[in-house]
Amino acid sequence: MARKLSIAAIIIACFLLQSTIFQVLSFGSISPNLLVIVTASFGFMRGRKEGLWVGFFCGLLIDLFFGTYLGIYTLIYVYIGYVNGMFRKFFYPEDVKLPMLLISASDLVCNMIIYIQLFLFRGKFDLPYYFMHIMLPELIYTILVTLVLYFVILKINQKLEEVERRSAAKFV
Amino acid sequence: MRRRTFKRKSKNALPPRYLLLIVTISCIVVMLLSFTLNLSGGPLKVAAGYVFTPMQQGINRIGSLLSDSIGNLETLQEVQAENELLKRQVSELTEQLNGIQLEQYDVENYRKLLSLDEKYPDYEKVAAHVIGKDTGNWFSTFLIDKGANDGIEVDMNVIADEGLVGIVTSVGANYAKVRAIVDDISQVSAMVLSTSDLCIVNGDLILMNAEQKLSLTKLKDDDDEVHVGDAIVTSTVSSKYVPGIMIGYISSLDYDSNNLTKSGTITPVVDFEHLQEVLVIKFLKDTTGLEAE
Fold it and tell me: Which of B97, B119, B141 is the last residue of a domain?
């Protein structure tokens, strides 16, 4: 229960930050993608299932408020969470390289899918431009934010796991 | 207790693979449904609106308070100088206004004589704050803090700084989503103010990013009378946009390869980067009846 509430709070906070403050703090109208960080982090920290659910709710929020068709973002984020969950066995909290790599890849893949679905199919073929001016800046900004946000999420998760262990021990 | 743990285990027994499959299928079904039936969330959306809109409003209020207090640090002298200047301007403008009012009176008289209706009725407008922007970097949609409760409906036009900002694309009880005209999938039927030649104004992510401009296409200008610097307004034949709203000024214009139409770019009058307050025109240009005939 504590876990569900905390995750809900994290998702809501990140969605609100991303749609308000980070839009004001954008560099050249590019803002970071906090929800990808959250989804990917819970994926590789907690496994496929939790990644999937966190991705589901992150994507659903974007779909409800900003999506053109309901379900596109939900699907993308669900897969991001799930695929990141497959890397759980390689994840060690002390090692920051893998999380960075996974979050960057997730952000890039997310943007790539959006480009293909919503731009390429409308005859906008200038991928190099979109890559250099939309995807890459967002990637860099997202990595910068990850340096802070990832450790916050990691700490919260460790706290939660500790609480869960303790309550489990109590019942045995 | 044991039963509870057992129950939990059986719930966890559904492998993530199948869960993924179920979620994927339901997402695709919802996507198709929303594509064909134009659904957009229904009750889920209403609930989400009640949860998130107040929070976004709060954050934005804090943000504007902060920026206001930074603005207050401007020195008093500057403000006084500005005040002086403004006072002079006010007196000048008042004089101008008097003249114009007289002319307006004349115009109204002539209109009455010609039994013409007012060409551009004064539409009722609602002021709204921008409370959230698209979380991604691909599209230019934003949320405003007025919704169905304030009489906002889908397809109402949104303006700011006397220029067209966009159109309402979906409405919740206490918020509405607006698609800006600079959005990559936005298309506005427009015309050149001086010659009434019709054209299409498209949002273009590349143009907007690089030069803060909109693209203009399909301008038929047989007499070659349209020039750079001409004003572009929404057209009278648009099905969704109220006619005569300023969009921007032509900044470049060239013949297309077919030599029949022209295309170019427009500099919008609205500053889309710093939108804070907008006005929603509470008037729906209803052409459904006409199309049916």
Answer: B119
